[in-house]
Design brief:
The protein has 585 residues and is mainly beta. The chain has 5 helices and 32 strands.
Length: 585
């Protein structure tokens, strides 16, 4: 019997039993709660030869639409929910075209949960993570078209105060593919909050939490042939992790270490090296001051429930990013994507508020923020086998890598400084400087692309006209290391679509709490190819009432990456109008 059919039958059975027994029938209507949300995104595209959007690119597909609706029902300790999704998309939207496979719509998520505080059971689609998610994290990110939910069963047991034990079993979602070809994922996680468990520790300054996890995936196929070679692949791949969170007064420290046994896959070129990852954080906080230092090391930690998949498909584990997340349009074009095959990163962040009624603080105080983050490759040493160097060679252990050695190749570096100042009750000013290094060849997969070495200046002024009306002006500039007159081989021209100097502005008018309208432009006036020096004009209009938001925007979209939590997808250049409607109840 197919996996999906079994899961649906189990879900229906559990829902019926728990729904009937959780509360008496006469309390059914009184204690029932229903909530939900809906979202619809529609795009209409038109030809725009100025940025290369021709009829051949559109290929007759001028409309793209997608949306979802989810409903949750709660009755006492029982909760159930469903999510329906529909997609009519094509390549210009930037969403994975696999979402449009088949009829492009269906019941994507359903679940039923019973939890009385001591025992909890969920059947259906599960979103959860163990610790920081290094060896297990399932989540959904609508803007990326990403969803790796686990369809199966999860049990949670809380035997005593401060102790939580989880166990789960199932298969992951990949767009609308059948679950039959995906590997089984099995995991267990335990966490102990010592301060909750031991009364003598309830009110101590020292706070401590310990946790441990084990996850394995099973794939039946154990032989892989490539050319004249045949490889025996492990059917069971296990990963384990341990973590701690400590706090004392104003100080905090957390760390998690994970290790995965050899897991040859298409992502790592079928090498048999074990994987490992370390994530650590040290922090200090007091009124007006916060300091955070984070570090991580990742080595061959791609962990998927189907060994033939690449990119970010069917990821079981998650690589947390340490870099600063930029929301402004120009620096966000160069967002960092985590490198599961190997990276060493560090981030240092200081937030300080100059007190009010001081020379530099003024009447309202002044907020300062400094951030430095850098990510390098790991150091790899080739292994000699029969007199041959086997660096990343298929069917070998791949390489050796000293744990604390940093690779010479730098993937990403971001130094930024921000000043935020309330000048008066009506005026608010924000200034920011960013110095960025971005290895486009590695992060975006553009062979031969030279790294971006850019400076950014950002300024934002908000003027509060009255209690309801306000204006916001945003100005940005980017200085790239690529010169306007630099000679570039036309073979690499596509690597320079978003290179060169840029200028951007945005002007937004808001009538709180319901209306907003904005106009914006991005202009890459310094692109080394004259035909790529384009304006990207956009205009937006929105209406908000209660839990409903309607937004319409039109104009040009520049090429770039959309990244959320270190996971990215490319967005091609486009021209058209879009509509977004969201509501909840």
């Amino acid at each position: 019997m197919k996996f999906e059919v079994i899961m649906k039958r189990i879900l229906i059975f559990v829902a019926l039993i728990l729904g009937v027994t959780s509360l008496q029938a006469q309390d059914f209507l009184k204690k029932s709660k229903v909530s939900g949300s809906f979202q619809i995104d529609g795009n209409y595209y038109w030809e725009d030869e100025g940025i290369g959007i021709t009829e051949d690119v559109i290929d007759g597909n001028k409309f793209g639409g997608y949306g979802f609706g989810k409903i949750q029902y709660q009755l006492g300790n029982f909760t159930a929910g469903i999510r329906f999704e529909a997609y009519q998309i094509f390549r210009m939207t930037g969403l994975p075209t696999d979402l449009n496979n088949g009829n492009g719509m269906g019941l994507a998520n359903y679940y039923a949960t019973y939890d009385n505080g001591t025992i909890g059971v969920t059947v259906g689609d599960i979103y959860d993570q163990f610790g920081n998610g290094l060896i297990f994290r399932t989540y959904e990110e609508w803007t990326l078209g990403f969803d790796n939910s686990l369809r199966g069963i999860r049990a949670v047991f809380r035997p005593t105060e401060g102790v939580t034990i989880k166990g789960l079993y199932g298969k992951q979602r990949l767009y609308w593919e059948s679950y039959e070809d995906h590997g089984l994922v099995r995991g267990i996680d335990g966490e102990w909050d010592i301060n909750q468990s031991i009364k003598a520790w309830n009110n101590t300054k020292l706070k401590a939490t310990l946790g441990a996890s084990f996850v394995s995936k099973y794939e039946a196929d154990k032989v892989y042939s490539y050319g004249d070679n045949t490889y025996n692949l492990p059917q069971n791949v296990g990963a384990y992790a341990g973590r701690m969170n400590l706090g004392y007064g104003r100080f905090g420290f957390s760390a998690e270490y994970a290790r995965k046994i050899n897991d040859p896959s298409a992502f790592n070129n079928w090498i048999y090296r074990d994987g490992q990852e370390l994530l650590a954080s040290l922090s200090y906080s007091q009124k007006g001051l916060g300091i955070v230092l984070q570090a991580k090391r990742v080595d061959n930690m791609s962990f998927k429930s189907k060994r033939a998949e690449e990119e970010n498909k069917l990821d079981i584990g998650f690589i947390p990013p340490l870099n600063y997340t930029h929301s402004h349009s120009l620096p966000s074009m160069f967002s960092y994507a985590s490198q599961p095959l190997g990276e060493m990163g560090i981030q240092f962040q200081i937030n300080y508020t100059i007190p009010k009624k001081t020379v530099l603080g003024g009447k309202y105080g002044t907020k300062l923020a400094f951030n430095y983050s850098q990510v390098n490759d790991i150091k790899r040493d080739s292994i000699m086998y029969n007199g041959v160097k086997t660096m990343n060679m298929m069917g070998t252990k791949g390489y050796d890598s000293p744990f604390f050695a940093i690779g010479d190749k730098m993937f990403y570096r971001d130094f930024n400084f921000e000043i935020e100042k309330k000048i008066s009750k009506d005026w608010h000013l924000t200034l920011m400087y960013i110095n960025l290094y971005y290895d486009m060849e590695t992060i975006e997969g553009h062979p031969g692309a030279e790294p971006v070495k850019a400076h950014f200046a950002f300024g934002e002024v908000i003027y509060k006209i009255n209690k309801k009306h306000s204006l916001r002006l945003e100005l940005q500039h980017m200085w790239d290391n690529v010169g306007m007159n630099q000679e570039i081989d036309p073979v690499y021209e596509e690597n320079y679509n978003k290179r060169g100097n840029w200028f951007a502005f945005l002007l937004e008018y808001t009538i709180a709490p319901k209306w907003f309208v904005s106009v914006a432009d991005k202009y890459n006036y310094g692109n080394p190819f004259e035909e790529k020096r384009d304006h990207y004009f956009t205009g937006s209009f929105g209406y908000i009432k209660d839990q409903t938001r309607i937004a319409i925007s039109g104009g040009r979209q520049s090429e770039g990456l959309i990244c959320v939590g270190g996971v990215c997808r490319p967005v091609p250049a486009s021209s058209g109008v879009s509509l977004t409607v969201t509501t909840s109840f």
